[in-house]
Design a protein that fits this description.
About 50% of the residues lie in helices and about 0% in strands. With about 110 residues, the chain is mostly helical. It has one domain. The longest helix is centred in the last third of the chain and has 13 residues.
């Protein structure tokens, strides 16, 4: 087999057009107002000190409306910074946060 034949066989094998899949359609996330309990969590997290340039700080700064995944992230942040939260209903909100956010198991 000559070099040109080997090259043509390789090109036929590796450069074959790939079938196109249907384009992915992104759905718009459904935003909603925070529930009264979530609003209390947000209020309790206002006085928390976040690490510099952290994702948690950026998330909380832009928090006006929530999606379902945003609600889970809010619960995660509330659990993470629970020692800094000064709120009269902290224990009840912490129990609620534990029901919303289930950490991944290994």
């Amino acid at each position: 087999m000559t070099y040109e034949q080997e090259l043509a066989a390789w090109r036929a094998k590796h450069e074959a057009p790939k079938p196109r899949s249907a384009p992915k359609v992104r759905t718009q996330a459904e935003y909603r107002e925070p529930s009264p309990d979530e609003a209390m969590m947000i209020k309790g997290l206002e006085g928390v000190t976040y690490p510099a340039a952290s994702w948690d700080k950026r998330f909380m700064r832009g928090l006006v409306r929530l999606t379902e995944s945003g609600s889970v992230q809010l619960a995660r942040i509330f659990i993470r910074y629970r020692r800094q939260v000064q709120h009269p209903e902290k224990e009840r909100l912490l129990a609620l946060a534990h029901t919303i956010y289930q950490p991944p198991t290994q």
